[in-house]
Inverse folding.
């Protein structure tokens, strides 16, 4: 762990245990503080847990990394999301089809993460390799290609 100046942040054993408990308790500072101080009263743990979070200076990136949610994991989850499916029909007519609503949400997240949205979101335009705007039917083909292309 390093600070903004490139130096290393030194943490006490108690602080490291708090961070571990904080992550194990899904970001619940009260529960995390209770783990490292089991005899503390709940009201005190709530306030002291808040103080400890501020003291250890956890960043969201550090928490995600400690939880194993790294950039490659996020990338793979986004790729998997672009292949989202849903069931339609019943009985013999039951089949799995592309879930375009979910796929659009994953595409939206990818665009947000890559900061690809223009300042005026009403002017968002998807383009092909030639730089020309994609027609709506091409966007559909793109999304379904991602779904069915298992390679």
């Amino acid at each position: 762990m390093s600070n903004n100046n490139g130096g290393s942040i030194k943490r006490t054993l108690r602080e490291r245990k708090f961070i571990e408990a904080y992550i194990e308790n899904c970001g619940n500072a009260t529960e995390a503080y209770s783990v490292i101080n089991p005899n503390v009263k709940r009201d005190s743990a709530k306030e002291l847990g808040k103080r400890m979070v501020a003291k250890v200076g956890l960043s969201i990136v550090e928490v995600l990394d400690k939880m194993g949610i790294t950039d490659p994991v996020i990338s793979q989850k986004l790729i998997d999301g672009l292949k989202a499916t849903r069931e339609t029909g019943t009985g013999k007519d039951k089949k799995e089809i592309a879930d375009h609503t979910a796929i659009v949400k994953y595409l939206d997240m990818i665009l947000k993460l890559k900061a690809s949205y223009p300042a005026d979101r009403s002017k968002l335009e998807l383009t092909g390799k030639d730089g020309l705007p994609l027609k709506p039917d091409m966007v559909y083909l793109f999304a379904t290609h991602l779904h069915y292309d298992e390679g």
Summary: Strands lie at 85-88, 95-98.
